Amino acid sequence: MKTRDRILHTSLRLFNEMGEPSVTTLLIADELDISPGNLYYHFKSKTDILEELFQQFEECMYSILIVPESEMDIEDLWFYLHLIFENIAKFQFLYKDLVTIMAKYPQFEKRFQKILNTKRKASISVLENARKNERLHASTDEIEALTEQIILTTTFWLSYSSVREGQVADDALARGVYQVMSVVAPFLEPERRAMINGLKDAYL
Amino acid sequence: MKTRDRILHTSLRLFNEMGEPSVTTLLIADELDISPGNLYYHFKSKTDILEELFQQFEECMYSILIVPESEMDIEDLWFYLHLIFENIAKFQFLYKDLVTIMAKYPQFEKRFQKILNTKRKASISVLENARKNERLHASTDEIEALTEQIILTTTFWLSYSSVREGQVADDALARGVYQVMSVVAPFLEPERRAMINGLKDAYL
């Protein structure tokens, strides 16, 4: 692996383990056993490292958030949500210190809001599709409140898990997916609600 | 107002406005137009100020989280949730930088987890009561998932609102209450669901 990539890889791991505010460029250099000068040759500052990681995060999110044209079945939806949670877990430092990081690095704020908006559109599109096909019985107001609930849950589930348990629990991702499905469930046909319970038993 | 109380009052306001990580004791003294020495006479450090504010927060939370013995109607529940959100808003610095603050001040972690547990018990007690009286139609699994959703929403709604809009929106508290009610609504009788929509129209 190139030094530049090793720096990014190790920075991401340290940010996730210790939280962004506790990680300095000196600590990153130390962990990699390279000189600070070598690190500064590749990245001028911690902000430069964050900028690169944030770009990686954006690219992953946008590639996932393309909603498939065809209707998603319960199992597809479970899998799709799992991908979103996996990507959030990969960049969990960002989510765990979200308000702090947005205040400290205002250059990320609008870009993060754009991701939230893309999530909102994806959620409404999936729910409206299911309503059109009479799989989901919800009013427009209900679809809106559901969407807020889905975005809130995907955004803060890992923070909640880490505050509640003192660390992100092993089954936090699967629990997060189940939590999202549980707010959608009451609007589904009984047969589809049963499928969610089946998936819960299989994965949790 | 005594100097000690003025320090607490101003610290809380600055923490809420700027986020705890950005506020120093020097800034607090400056804002109050007192000397740092005068501040240190009352509080040895920022941690001492936080300790006192955290105690106030705990006392408020525990006094609210006593669930009334009698069954709560939709309007009572709306009002009760509003009290909880108001108290969270009063100490919003804690919630907005929750993961950061818990990592920085581990002495608060267990105490915050105890509040989450008390919230959990209060939520389950309210929901089980409504089920016993046949107002709520949910399985034990559903009551559990609902409870997680209610705690997640009360804990992170203001952070979500502040990240989404760049600041906590004016109607954030009422929206938070509505969001919590919207996850409970599908398990209620149609008549009670209609009451929630009525309250939404009145308050939002």
Description:
The structure is a homodimer of 204-residue chains. Chain A is mostly helical and 204 residues long. Chain A has two domains: 1-44, Arc Repressor Mutant, subunit A; 53-203, Tetracycline Repressor, domain 2, CATH 1.10.357.10. In chain A, 76% of the residues lie in helices and 0% in strands. Chain A contains eleven helices and no strands. In chain A, helix 1 packs across helix 2 (25-32) and helix 10 (172-184) packs antiparallel against helix 11 (190-203). The mean pLDDT of chain A is 93. Chain A binds chain B through residues 19, 21-22, 96-100, 102-104, 109, 112-113, 116, 141-142, 145-146, 148-149, 151-153, 155-157, 159-160, 162-164, 166, 178-179, 182-183, 185-187, 197, 200, and chain B through 19, 21-22, 96-100, 102-104, 109, 112-113, 116, 141-142, 145-146, 148-149, 151-153, 155-157, 159-160, 162-164, 166, 178-179, 182-183, 185-187, 197, 200.
